[in-house]
Design goal:
The chain is mainly alpha-helical. The chain has 8 helices and 4 strands; from the N terminus they run H-H-E-E-H-E-E-H-H-H-H-H. A hairpin with a 2-residue loop joins strand 3 and strand 4. Helix 3 packs across helix 5, helix 4 runs antiparallel to helix 5 and helix 6 packs across helix 8.
């Protein structure tokens, strides 16, 4: 073989080794049960669409669309949003809380300003709210949780507290105590 062919063959082998290293690193990330390694990998040097993974030997460059990894990247429809915040033809449902009304008012403002980023953020918050609402409902079925809740907050329902505040602070405190 000539020197050019040998150099080309060595260069191809080096490039294949780098590709294999990145493939192995990604497959290790994907076999994990949690996304801890994936999240920590993104905390390295980053730009908007690219990440540099430190694989031990050297830093590898990988192009990734991080938005597709966001659990709420697929936004909901307007009809689902209205269901979550409790808006019907006549106005708000009696069961809607202040936080749900706040989400609705922010949504109306975002639509009026024609700000698609703001609309997307509101829709994502509504999805998070719905997931947390289901979490609170599940906790309310737990007798020890409800006993501890009543001991600390009386007859006030955890569901109403969550619907009015929008945060899980009080609920998580009681959940940790039980």
């Amino acid at each position: 073989m000539t020197k050019k062919k040998t150099a080309l063959a060595n260069n191809i082998e080096i490039n294949l080794d780098e590709v294999n290293t990145v493939e192995n690193f990604i497959s290790e990330l994907l076999t994990e049960d949690s996304f801890y390694k994936l999240n920590s990998a993104f905390r390295t040097e980053e730009s908007n669409q690219y990440s540099f993974f430190n694989t031990g030997e050297n830093i590898e460059f990988v192009s990734i669309n991080k938005d597709s990894l966001n659990p709420y990247s697929n936004t909901i429809t307007e009809k689902e949003f209205f269901r979550i915040v409790g808006v019907n033809k006549t106005g708000f449902s009696k069961r809607s809380g202040k936080y749900q009304e706040s989400l609705y008012s922010h949504y109306i403002r975002a639509i009026a300003e024609n700000d698609l980023g703001y609309v997307s953020d509101i829709l994502n918050k509504a999805m998070v709210f719905e997931n947390n609402l289901n979490y609170v409902k599940m906790l309310m079925k737990d007798k020890t949780f409800m006993k501890e809740w009543r001991r600390n907050f009386g007859k006030e329902s955890p569901l109403n507290v969550f619907k009015h505040s929008g945060n899980l602070r009080k609920i998580n405190i009681i959940h940790e105590r039980k």
